[in-house]
């Protein structure tokens, strides 16, 4: 069996700025100041929240502030997703997920820095949620390597099979996805639909790279190949 763990943002979909807008609103409600912009690429939501606080108010969040900020962000996000005019599903994502989901040799899951409720909100908006039954999320751990490990363990429980009988495949648009996958002994596939490109994936030790998730990119052949 092959367990395939997808990243969400810029791999399966682009939320059209809904995350930034809803998080910004939640932050402003709490601290009465608009958050300064930081580089969010490849980072988990807890790390983004902490780095935003440090940049904007000059200190880290307390545990209580973090919990309340995340809860309000998750509450606001679905509305912002619905009204986003530029929300989009990545080329080939729906077709690939359908194909993988229908193949008994594959088990489909999520590995993402998004908080869990935010992950499902985005997948529902993209009409991809039905393909996924488990995952590892930013709300499980701020560390991507650890949340991938959690996703693997949850997938193993779903498969009801020993881990040594399961081949893990991690797919994402950032070098951080590749590093976390490699740290967990996974076969890693970089998808050049985000900011990172071939040189970034090579530097991060990606096992393979594709331009997108379409059939033309050959990603299904890679997933189905005996070399994995």
Main sheet: strand order: 5-4-1-6-7-8
Order of helices and strands: EEHHHEHEHEHEHEHEH
Question: How much of the residues is beta strand, in percent?
Answer: 5-15%
Query: What is the number of independent domains?
Result: 2
Q: The CATH topology of the largest domain, please? A: Rossmann fold
Number of strands: 8
Q: What fraction, in percent, of the residue positions are helical?
A: 40-55%
Query: What is the overall pLDDT average?
Result: 96
Rg computed from alpha carbons, rounded to a whole number of angstroms:
17 Å
- What is the CATH level 1 assignment of the largest domain? Alpha Beta
CATH superfamily of the largest domain, by name, is HAD superfamily/HAD-like
Shape: globular
Structural class: alpha/beta
Compute the number of helices: 9
Low-confidence stretches: none
The major β-sheet equals:
6 strands, parallel
**Can you tell me the CATH architecture of the largest domain?**
3-Layer(aba) Sandwich
End-to-end Cα distance: 11 Å
What does this structure look like?
- The protein is an alpha/beta fold and 228 residues long.
- It folds into 2 domains: 2-14 and 88-224, HAD superfamily/HAD-like (Rossmann fold); 18-83, DNA polymerase, domain 1 (Orthogonal Bundle), CATH 1.10.150.
- The protein has helices at residues 18-31, 45-57, 63-83, 93-101, 116-125, 144-159, 175-183, 198-203, 219-224, and strands spanning 2-6, 13-14, 88-89, 106-111, 135-136, 167-172, 187-191, 208-210.
- A 6-stranded parallel beta sheet has the order 5-4-1-6-7-8, sandwiched between helices. Strands 2-3 form a two-stranded antiparallel ribbon.
- The chain starts with a strand and ends with a helix.
- The model has no long low-confidence stretch (mean pLDDT 96).
């Amino acid at each position: 069996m092959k367990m395939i763990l997808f990243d969400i943002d810029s791999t399966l979909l682009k939320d059209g700025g809904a995350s930034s807008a809803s998080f910004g609103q939640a932050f402003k409600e709490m601290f009465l100041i608009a958050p300064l912009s930081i580089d969010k690429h490849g980072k988990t939501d807890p790390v983004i929240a902490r780095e935003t606080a440090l940049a904007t108010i000059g200190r880290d969040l307390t545990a209580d502030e973090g919990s309340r900020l995340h809860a309000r962000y998750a509450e606001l996000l679905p509305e912002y997703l619905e009204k986003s005019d530029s929300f989009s599903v990545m080329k080939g994502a729906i077709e690939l997920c359908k194909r993988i989901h229908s193949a008994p040799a594959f088990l489909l899951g999520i590995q993402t820095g998004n908080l869990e409720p935010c992950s499902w909100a985005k997948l529902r908006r993209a009409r991809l949620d039905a393909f996924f039954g488990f995952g590892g999320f930013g709300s499980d751990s701020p560390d991507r390597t650890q949340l991938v490990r959690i996703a693997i363990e949850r997938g193993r429980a779903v498969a009801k099979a020993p881990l040594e009988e399961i081949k893990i495949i991690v797919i994402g648009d950032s070098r951080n996805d590749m590093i976390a996958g490699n740290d967990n002994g996974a076969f890693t596939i970089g998808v050049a639909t985000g900011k990172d490109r071939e040189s970034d994936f090579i530097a991060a030790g990606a096992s393979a790279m594709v331009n997108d998730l379409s059939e033309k990119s050959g990603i299904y052949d890679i997933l189905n190949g005996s070399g994995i």
